[in-house]
Specification:
Its EC number is 4.2.1.17. Belongs to the enoyl-CoA hydratase/isomerase family. The chain has eleven helices and ten strands. The protein is α/β, with parallel strands linked by helices. The radius of gyration is 19 Å and the shape is globular. It binds acetoacetyl-coenzyme A. Acetoacetyl-coenzyme A (CAA) binds near residues 65, 68 and 131.
């Protein structure tokens, strides 16, 4: 598939999408989001891809939605065109795990894209922020919701109401990112992590991901009930039999995603 604003590569069970508008610090325009959506569709449909990685450049994961592209939009354009929906939300509906590998700026829509992924691994140069307030707007792809769930009200209000950036260390301390690594080791670390995940049962991984995500959508008792049903369902799979048998026989399991 030929793209102009992203790069894609699929190897050893891992599909990588790299934002590639370096002159605009990977500002997210309609073309790039459309291409990202199509690349995600292709990776989701590809049985050889088990894990997806979304990344940018060393200087910027993405510096937000493209301000130049949206500056002249009217209310009617935004409202009737349902601006910031469709492929903008595509990551959220992925069944395969998506890791955000973030270096440099992850601002506005860039921070929101990263938060839509299942987990964020950040380089020590990463800077997260929701600076929309400085532009006279509010976040538009879930920033106020996902940031608040990730870091709590105090930090979310601090960031959304002042537009300040949060460095990698603070982001890890606050629960926004899973791990922080030196910038020159970011992709190695993420690919090693993705390679481990790619060895596991894809169907079990889908259940595990769905169950964790359910925690953000429902009450504790409903979430625990949902988890338990998935846990029960695992016993109907070949992979549960294989995983436990392999443990008992002291060998590596060979999962078949069934
Ligand atoms: N949209 C369009 N272009 C952008 C951009 C954006 N979000 N961010 C950076 N660029 C462009 C700049 O205009 C500049 O282009 P030119 O060379 O043609 O002038 C180029 O990228 C390099 O940027 P800077 O010269 O500003 O680089 P810097 O290192 O001095 O500053 C920065 C970096 C702090 C990230 C700064 O570029 C910046 O503040 N960018 C805007 C960040 C922002 O406000 N993001 C939120 C956007 S709104 C949004 O995302 C809404 C939503 O919820 C979906």
């Amino acid at each position: 598939m030929a793209f102009e604003t992203i790069l894609t590569e699929a190897k050893d069970g891992i599909g990588v999408i790299t934002f590639n508008r370096p002159k605009a610090l990977n500002a997210l325009n309609a073309q790039m989001i459309g291409e990202m959506g199509r690349a995600l569709d292709a990776f989701e449909a590809d049985d050889n891809v088990h894990v997806i990685v979304l990344t940018g450049s060393e200087k910027a994961f993405a510096a937000g939605a493209d301000i130049k592209e949206m500056a002249d939009k009217s209310f009617n354009d935004a409202y009737m065109g349902d601006f910031i929906s469709g492929p903008w939300d595509r990551i959220d509906s992925c069944h395969k795990p998506v890791i955000a590998a973030v270096s440099g700026f992850a601002l506005g829509g860039g921070c929101e894209m990263a938060m839509m992924c299942d987990l964020i691994i950040a380089s020590d140069t990463a800077k997260f922020g929701q600076p929309e307030i400085t532009l006279g707007i509010v976040p538009g792809i879930g920033g106020t919701q996902r940031l608040t769930r990730a870091v709590g009200k105090a930090k979310a209000m601090d960031m959304v109401l002042t537009g300040r950036m949060m460095g990698a260390e603070e982001a890890e301390r606050s629960g926004l990112v899973a791990r922080v690594v030196p910038a020159d080791q970011l992709m190695d670390e993420v690919m090693t992590m993705a390679a481990t995940m790619a060895t596991f049962s894809r169907s079990t991984m889908k259940m595990a991901k769905e169950s964790v995500r359910r925690a953000f959508e429902t009450t504790l008792s409903e979430g625990v009930r949902y988890e338990r049903r998935l846990f029960h369902a695992c016993f109907a799979t070949y992979d549960q039999k294989e995983g436990m048998k392999a443990f008992i026989e002291k060998r590596k399991p060979k999962f078949e995603n069934r």
